[in-house]
UniProtKB/TrEMBL annotation:
This is Hydroxymethylpyrimidine/phosphomethylpyrimidine kinase. GO terms for cellular component: cytosol. NCBIfam families: HMP-P_kinase (TIGR00097). One of its GO terms (biological process) is thiamine biosynthetic process. The keyword S-adenosyl-L-methionine does not apply. Residues 11-254 form the Pyridoxamine kinase/Phosphomethylpyrimidine kinase domain. InterPro entries: HMP/HMP-P_kinase_dom (IPR004399), PM/HMP-P_kinase-1 (IPR013749), Ribokinase-like (IPR029056).
């Protein structure tokens, strides 16, 4: 069985972060492991407190996994602070796993700064050069490039700038634009487009976490980069189509719709 690691924050409400990542891994039939960078007190309505995990405990979690288990893919989500990023980068340079997907999580859908703004530069400098792929959403790409992004043309321009920052591939997600949800992949030579109709729902908590985990799982399973993104896009689209109205705010996606359907557990 393929073994995949998420390095990210915990979301107590189970919709985003570590919890979304592990559910996505399970739904893909890969074995999920986790390094927790921060514990958030969070639900569908907001983030109410964050406890960062110390540098030493993050280092030890990574060491415990890599010294014992072969890792087929790594996904990085919420990294919170400068020292968190530095220790992750240091450890990953040492263990050098083949596939690293970086989701540059900055601000939650509810508006909370999950990444200290002072750490934005560190994330770009330390993590992008290690990344097989980086998956910014539009607001994150705007912070990274300092440009305003409203059109597909501007998404392409931004993807080129982010590529120059060191990631081998850039997947710029279009979930925050108004038209169809088109994600653009740039590999330094050409663009590929992954499109779906916009689904009318407020329940998109954890969509970015889910997409990057699905890409990582598919890459670990041996799919090519383009296939991995295409399958992940299909997965997130179904997960949003069948998202769950849990809680009073922005509800989570449905990770097991396809599995339940196949097993005849739902109509
Ligand atoms: N309303 C929607 N309908 C269809 N796809 C969506 C919708 N919202 C987001 N997506 C897709 O979900 C994935 C996550 O995108 P996005 O919401 O931009 O990221 P983030 O969760 O990081 O803000 C992308 O593939 C995007 O195209
Ligand atoms: C621990 C953690 N990691 C990531 C997100 C981003 O998810 P979203 O953009 O859907 O709020 C989150 N809310 N919490």
């Amino acid at each position: 069985m393929k073994k995949v690691l998420t390095i990210a924050g915990s979301d107590s409400s189970g919709g985003a972060g570590i919890q979304a990542d592990l559910k996505t891994f399970s739904a893909h039939g890969v074995f999920g492991m986790s390094v927790i960078t921060a514990v958030t007190a969070q639900n569908t309505q907001g983030v109410f407190a964050v406890q960062d995990i110390t540098r030493d405990v993050i280092a030890k979690q990574i060491e415990a996994i890599f010294e014992d288990i072969e890792v087929d893919g790594v996904k990085i989500g919420m990294v919170s602070q400068v020292q968190t990023i530095e220790v992750i980068a240091e450890q990953l340079r040492h263990y050098a796993p083949q596939t690293i997907v970086v989701d540059p999580v900055m601000v939650s859908k509810s508006g909370y700064h999950l990444l200290n703004p002072e750490a934005e530069v560190t994330l770009i400098k330390e993590l992008l050069p290690l990344a097989m792929m980086v998956t910014p959403n539009i607001p994150e790409a705007e912070v990274m490039t300092k440009m305003s992004i409203r059109t597909l043309k501007q998404m392409e321009e931004a993807a080129k700038i982010i590529y120059q920052m060191g990631a081998k591939n850039v997947l710029l997600k279009g979930g925050h634009l108004e038209d169809d949800s088109t994600d653009i992949l740039y590999d330094g030579r050409e663009f590929s487009y992954f499109s779906s109709s916009r689904i009318a729902t407020k329940n998109t908590h954890g969509t970015g976490c889910t997409l990057s985990s699905a890409i990582t799982a598919n890459m670990a399973l041996g799919y090519s980069l383009n296939e991995a993104v295409s399958r992940a896009k299909e997965y997130i689209t179904i997960a949003i189509q069948h998202s769950l109205s849990i809680g009073k705010g922005v509800g989570p996606t449905h990770h097991f719709y396809t599995l339940y359907k196949k097993a005849g557990l739902i109509e």
